[in-house]
Structures are given as C-alpha cells and as structure tokens.
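Section 3.1 - Work completed
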Amino acid sequence: MADKILVVDDEKEIMQYICLSLDREGFKVIGTTNAEEALELADREQPDLIISDVKMPIMDGVEFCWMIRENSKIPMVPFVFLTGYDDDDLQINGFRAGADAYLLKPVQRSKLLNIVASLINRYKSLQEMGAPKGAGVSGNTDEISTVEILQFLSTQVKTGVFRLVQNNIEGKIYMKQGKIVNAEFADLDGMDAVNMIIMNMAGDFYFDKVDVDVEDIIDVPTIKLLMEASRIIDEANKNL
C-alpha cells in the first residue's frame, strides 16, 4: 500500500506542484488549501506525513501543527513546514510546535523527496516499536533519536523505565501512563537527569514495561519538556 501524504498550502499552485511531485513517486497524496479542512482530513485519512505552509489565513501552520500534536488521532505523524522565509525565529517556533523539518520555497523536488523518504522511514520504525514483541522495546539512537522514542512512549501512554546506555554508563527515565515523572543519571535526578540524558547520551536504548515506584518530581508536561529539548538540540546543531 502506498504511503499517504497530506499537503496544505493556501497557494493552490504550490500545493498542486507538491502533490504532483509526490504522486509521480507513487505516494497517495491529499491536497487542500485550508488548514481547518486539513485537520478533518488528518483524522479521517491518517496520513503517514503532513506538509504544511506556515503562513496561512484563518489557521496558520504553527497552530495547525499544535493541533495535530495535541488533539489528533496521529500525534506522532512526521510534520514538514513550507516557508518562503529563512527565519531562525520562525523555525524555532515551528520546532517548538512539533515540526520535524523545514522546506524553503521555491521547493526543490530532490530535497522534498529526500526529506519525505527519511521522515516516513523513521515514522515506520517508531510504529514497529509499538508492535507486540514481548515485554518492551529496544534499539539504538543512531536509528531513532531519544526525543522521538520518548515522544512515542508518551503518546502510547506507556508505563515503565527507559534506559539509555553509552560506554557502560546508564541513564534512566521513569514514565507513568505516558508522563515522564523522574530520571536518574550519575548523581542527578529529576529534570537535571532528563536533560543530561537527552542532550548528551547516545547508544543502545531499552524500554521495560514494569511498574514504576518512584517519586513524581517532574511537574513539566512531557510534550513541553521534549519540545524544549528539541529546540535546544536544533539550536546547538546550527552552531556547529
């Protein structure tokens, strides 16, 4: 079955160009010029990826992305922003809303196809993590980022312990019903430990579905915690 992509842009010509480019590559494409209609289409069609303009009337792309992440049936779907502005502040706001990537207009077809293929493959890897394969899941952060893994576990309302191992050093993040409640890394706990694990560790990860009997000392909503981590990582990468 062909992967399904939802394209939203109030400039009809741009929307049609992107839809045609993706259709020629074998994707099933749904296009609209209205973000409110796109919300309905997203829940009904449950696409494998969404591409949305940022500047749109009635509902802009950032608000649309927030709605997908917070109030849709597909909160983890890859989300790509289209913009005519190479604006760092705009991109930061988009990543805070939960965007995975940006494409500058005019859109280069080769770059469009590369980003789409990469994000859909990552999305499928996350979906495979949720398949019934025993008591938990495991993998390596070379394949899927720590933030993506924790986002997935949160949206799946998982309870258990996420462990990340690097050079025999282990960090632990505790989750109850999809909420990050505590963490341990070296002599740190709580938010300090979460930040150290997300920002500085890479390696093999494991998630064990077990009862969690630790004190809930993190009062930040998990989605906000992970979005802020994504923003900091993106800013750090820009400065490399």
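Second construct:
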Amino acid sequence: MLWHQIKDILAEKLSDSSYSLWISPLSAKLNDENTLEIVCPDTFSRSWVTEKHHSDITAALECLNKKDVQIIFTTKNGAQSAQPLLAPPCKQLRLPDIPKVKSSIRTLHPRFTFDEFIVGDCNIMAHSACADVAMNDSTNGACVYLKAGTGLGKSHLTHAVAHHIIGNKPFVSLNYLTAQQLTAEMVKNIKNNTMNHFKKKYQKQCDVLLIEDVHTLAGRVKTQMELSETLDILLESGKRIIFTSSLGPREIPDIDSGIRSRLLSGIITTINPPNLETRVKIIRKKAQNNSLDLNEEHIIYIAENIKGDIRQIESSIISIKAQSSLMKSPPDFTMIKEALANIIGNSRQLSPVVIRDFIATQFKVAIADLQSKSRKQSLSFPRQVAMYLSRKYTSMPLVDIGKAFNRDHSTVVHAIRVITEKTTRNTSVEKQVKLLEEKLEKKFM
C-alpha cells in the first residue's frame, strides 16, 4: 500500500522519537488515483504534521514516482475545541520535538471570531489582510496597520486572528497586548534589571505580534526605541505583525521617525463606519445570537437610526431583548423606539423611515399602504411627498430611500419631479408641503 511505503521512507529519514510520536499514529487511504487522505488523531496532531512533515511526505511521494498525488490532512473526530489549548500543559508533559511556546495573550472575547465578523465594503480589505496574517499567508505582506474609530471592529479582527492561531497553530508563539501594556511591561523589566528577558520574549520567541492602540506610544521615547529594535528583528525574519490605532501612522504625534517608517512599511487599511446594508447584516446577526425575533422592518429601522459605533447596535439589541423578556411580548416599534431613545437620545437624525412614518401619521394612512403597490391618489400623493422630503432632509442614496417604500430609485426620481412641479404650479400643494416641513423640523430637528 502507498501509505506503508511512505512510512518506510519516513522511518529512515526521521528520528525514532519523531516517527513514533507523529507518523506512527497516522492512517491514510487513497481516495482516488490523485488524493491521499491522511487521518490524524486530533487537530493538534494535524496542525503539527501539516506544518512540520508535509514536505517530508511530499518528498516520499516523489521518491515513489507519485508526485501528482494531492495530500489532504483530516482528523478522526472532526475539529476539537480550541479552549483547552488556552491552558498550556505542565512542563514535564511537553511532547518531544515541540519547541517550548510561551504566548502572552490578553483576554479574548469568545464571539470575536472570523465567523462572527460581518464583512462589508467598509471593512473588506481589513478583514482580508487580518485573515492572511492568521493563516500565515504573506502574499500581501506580513505587517498590517488597522486604523479605525471606536467600535468599528478593529479589536474584533485582532481577537479573531488570535482565536484562529490558538485553535489551529498551538505551537506558534503569539504576543497580543496593548501599547500601554507593552510600556508597563518594559518599565517593570527595567526596574528589575531583566531587560534580557523582555528582549528574548519579543525578539527571539515571538512568531506573531499584535499591538493595539499603538498611538498611545506618543512621547514614550524608551518604549519606542525598544519597539523599533524589536520590529527590525521580527520583520527581517518574516514574522507577522498587526498594529491597531484610531490614528494613521502619519497622524501620531511625538513619535520617532524610525517607528513611523516601520508602521508605514506594511499594509495600511482603514475600517470605515458600516453603510446601511452592512448595518442591516450586523443587526440581523446580533439579533440571531441573542435569540431576538426582529422582522425586516424592525431591522431596517434600527439600522437607519444607529450609525457608526457597532457597540451601540449591540446595546440596542440587548435592551430590546430585555424589554421583550420583561413584557413577555415580541418586539414592536414602541419598544424599539424606547430602546433607541435610551441609547442615542430622543433627538434622532432624520431618515427615510422616520419621514415615511411621520407622513403616514399626518395623512392618516397605514405604513403598509405607503409600501403597497397601490396607485390610488390618496396613497400615491403622500408617498411622493415622503420621498420628496426624504431627499431634501437626508443624504441617503435614492436606492435606500426607495427601499423604505418598497420602490426602486427611478420611482423616487419620478416622485421628486412630480412634487417639485406641483409646488411650483399649485399654491395649495406648496402650502401643504411647507406646513409638513415645518412640523417635521419642529418635531425632529
């Protein structure tokens, strides 16, 4: 059998301890003429064999004139939980051939994983760059600089990188901390006269370095000097680095030009506030995670009223969930509006949905009727007025205005043209629209 032949070759090439520990427990089967499936006892074994012995197995296949055979590594019982890997085994239980790995990791949020991260136009490049670092893909470079405001997801991505490495590469040495923690650790080592330990940890025993809030290094000359030396060593040896900050590298004051140059050396990407479409996806995901039943109208309403900080979205979902549980009733607009008022205040930025609901009240028609396909004058006129006011009082794209009424952008264009012409030619319509504008401004602005 092919696998037995491969094992014979590996037995001659590897040490007895390596062979008995890593190769002997493996089993394999040739699924077809071109695929060899190698089954490992668990995910740790799969990670180690893939990382350290894939090339050995490939070389053995070439010796057997089977270089076209593709190798696939699997596990017997599927993926194992990564949680036990957070607690390293005792020193005497460390397996042979595995280097002593000492990772330093800040507390990770259990839900800050790649699976939970919602990708949109605002963050797709940042997500891709961090995924490459996590999977040790250096195609786009090994250094990433994430710039983002509060609550936009930069910590989520760095936590996701750490989760992935811990779960899939347990022998990789990972140091994840904030710039302030790095400074405090360095000061402690200086006081204890143990800077050799500090240098060894970050320069010789570090495969991946994640530093958050790097802008807080401003003015810390000694920390900048040590970090500059560390970055040179890590970058020259191809190690992976991620920085996060609310400022771009050129915007950080009181920072050494050498550090600034190194921060500029990799991929620099900005996470922007999520657009409406991405906010809808985020709300839908968070509602699902919290077992909160929101319909699409509820979701769009929340998305249109909470912009920017994703943490406010999460707070609103938790608040609505709490009220729904206390009231023992499903969420409704009254409940949602109260929850949003507690988070963003009563003064809300106007949106097509807010204007639509206001017009529905003024004309005494149902929201569902404004969204219906009916072309009755009693419904089409209020609908057109609402679209006209949405264009005037918001910066929303025509497409998004149309969504509030279940219409496309061309219908919105037509409505704006119709109301503009009517207010120009018909004094009664002009006065009516003017009165609605005054009421709208008084209530919401």
